[in-house]
Design goal:
Belongs to the universal ribosomal protein uL4 family. By secondary structure, the protein is of the alpha/beta class. About 35% of the residues lie in helices and about 15% in strands. It contains 7 helices and 6 strands, in the order ββαααβαβαβαβα.
Length: about 210
């Protein structure tokens, strides 16, 4: 099992914690990690782009000039794709980009992302993360104590003071164990977990 140091909000090491290998020590499956990221981005796409084909643009019902004898190339409609105001050849149409992954594939992708953070030593465990009031500067001070800038911060339960204090920091995202995903874990340089968040993640995914 991986042994990770535990820090307090002042940035001082106060102990260590054993991480469960079935969640934080699996064999990293790069293919599933990539697939999970692609799926999340694809599922976010609206797919509402649309343009008209030559069958849908108005006008062009009459042949612009006779077939032969004009010196021009033959034309059947002024709404052909080569004409100004004509239709688009392969016009984009509304579509659904989303696709599904199996539950076990999703779980393995998430475990792989968590494991990669442990292997790269980009995981911090806090004994607790409590703020008495909503103050962004207090949250920034905690990050400075830990020497962190861009981080995904996961707490065991939703804490409004923590969420509201961090939401104005563009390089920080807060989450709870039930909402973490592969994309966010990889997007932020460091993964910060509270001890109760570690326990819940291991409980759900072990």
């Amino acid at each position: 099992m991986a042994n990770v140091s535990v820090y307090n909000m002042e940035g001082k090491e106060v102990g260590s914690i054993e991480l469960n290998d079935s969640v934080f020590g699996v064999e990293v499956n790069d293919h599933l990690v990539h697939m999970a990221v692609v799926q999340q981005l694809a599922n976010k796409r609206q797919g509402t782009q649309s343009a008209k084909t030559r069958a849908e643009v108005s006008g062009g019902g009459r042949k612009p000039w006779r077939q032969k004898g004009t010196g021009h190339a033959r034309q059947g409609s002024t709404r052909s794709p080569q004409w100004k105001g004509g239709g688009v050849v392969f016009a984009p149409k509304p579509r659904d980009y989303s696709f599904k992954m199996n539950k076990k594939e999703k779980q393995l992708a998430l475990k792989s992302a968590l494991t990669s953070r442990v292997e790269e030593k980009k995981i911090f465990v806090l004994d607790e993360l409590k703020l008495s009031d909503v103050k962004t500067k207090n949250f920034v001070k905690i990050l400075d104590n830990l020497k962190l800038s861009k981080a995904l911060v996961v707490t065991g339960e939703k804490d409004e003071n923590v969420v509201l204090s961090a939401r104005n920091i563009p390089t920080v995202l807060t989450a709870i164990p039930g909402t973490i995903n592969v994309f966010d874990i990889l997007k932020y340089d460091t993964l910060v977990l509270t001890k109760d968040a570690v326990a819940k993640i291991e409980e759900v995914y072990a």
